[in-house]
Amino acid sequence: MKWLLICPWDRPLVPHLGGNGTLATMPLLGQSLVEYWLGHLAYQGAKEVVILADEQPDLVRQVAGDGARWGISVRVIEESRELSSAQVLLKYERELDPTSLQNQIVCLDHLPGQPEIPLFEDYANFFKALLTFMPNARTPERVGVREIEPGIWAGLNCHVSADAQLQAPCWLGKNVFIGSKAMIGPNTIIEDGSFIDSMAAVSEGFVGADTYIGQCSEVVGSMAIGNMLIKISTGATIQIPDIFVMCGLRRPKATPTAGWLEKLSDLCVKNKGEASLLWKHFLMNRES
Description:
- The protein is α/β, with parallel strands linked by helices.
- The protein has two domains: 135 residues, Spore Coat Polysaccharide Biosynthesis Protein SpsA, Chain A (Alpha-Beta Complex); 142 residues, UDP N-Acetylglucosamine Acyltransferase, domain 1, CATH 2.160.10.
- It has an eight-stranded mixed β-sheet.
- The relative contact order is 0.11.
């Protein structure tokens, strides 16, 4: 059976999701929406999947590949705009099974098995969907994700300081660093490559990929994506100007400013071990 997946494009109520990528390829609990759906359809017995992408189709191709990872055939077709299910049905009717046409067309605006929780309607539903899906995110093909304590999941190369406090449920992605005396959870998601500094606290919140949360900073009931802080319940946003409070770790290549070096020097004096790890983490992400 052939399935057609529609990649979502513009969702004005959640403008800060997706970043430089697409909604279909942004990391959700360490893996993209496209990957979750391909794994789900392969488990359901799908043999061929066509992905319709009008935004950055090459990025979608890079993420999905040819489907060999899931044992299925995958093609990505570039569209000029996002099509509705009815428009897809008219355009691709000949390629679909006439006995179950509607069931073969899926818009990627929700996670598998959760059609009642739309991902991109607002930030509250986005966060709710991720928390609900968290126990199912460790799919069979994922390597390295483990449940280190009941309701607490961690990815590969995740470092948690011995005196940090974790409270379930929470998700720590791969290459995440949790500093000394940091407090994480409950109902918290830390995406891949993020650095939570010593004595920071994150609860009832979401930290996007490659985001730094500074020493003694607090994120409660909010989403931290780079230097953007978003209140989950209302969608209100604020940009944090101080990179030692909150910032994105992936930056364009540039010569560090004197202010950055001076602050790093001060941090090294106060906490040599963790400052060194932060600097290495920062340089690694800049080079990649």
